[in-house]
């Protein structure tokens, strides 16, 4: 069946991941350690413990960790349980989401499209493909970061994880792309840098292209993909035919 839709993860696939999200996560944890210093002392938790809970170990980000693959709500729940807070999880989750959104907006210069990605997306758009986003990020951060990277207007569909739709690897975001753009999953290619992205494509019945610009290695992605590329910038539609 002819490919008509290209769906992309955002961070690590279209945008630089490591520098941005290490800085953002460290900023959020710093703010948390100030506000909840008594709870952290009581539970004997350090800032490093909070970072490790979401898959950050120094400058290394675990491909299977919460930061790389999960929505903010999952990070909030992990920290909520670690801190043994007596408040409501929903209120804490809203607070964490706001902190992440604020940190993204406070670091606009770190938001950068990966080399060659913008030109590739423009070319694919001109070829007639429908382009979409499927990210674990929030709506506010997604809109802000894509606008900052000058990519926002290229997309026909924006799928984000803001608590109102089941996140990846559930197929809901890809189904939304198909519904909005009048496609079937077999007509879609999912691009991503994590195993979760590839599982998402499999669950939805789409084709899958893994890229090595994010957190996963070649060996981690290999069992789950149809094609592996160094970058989205290297994609050509003929690759799928091969």
Automatic annotation (TrEMBL):
InterPro entries on file: HAD-like_hydrolase_sf (IPR050155), HAD-like_sf (IPR036412), HAD-SF_hydro_IA (IPR006439), HAD_sf (IPR023214), PGP-like_dom2 (IPR023198)
Identification of the protein by name: phosphoglycolate phosphatase
Gene Ontology molecular function: any one: phosphoglycolate phosphatase activity
EC number: 3.1.3.18
Family listed: Belongs to the HAD-like hydrolase superfamily. CbbY/CbbZ/Gph/YieH family.
Recorded GO CC terms: cytosol
GO biological process: DNA repair
Record pathway: Organic acid metabolism; glycolate biosynthesis; glycolate from 2-phosphoglycolate: step 1/1
Catalytic activities: 2-phosphoglycolate + H2O = glycolate + phosphate
The organism of origin for this protein: Photobacterium jeanii
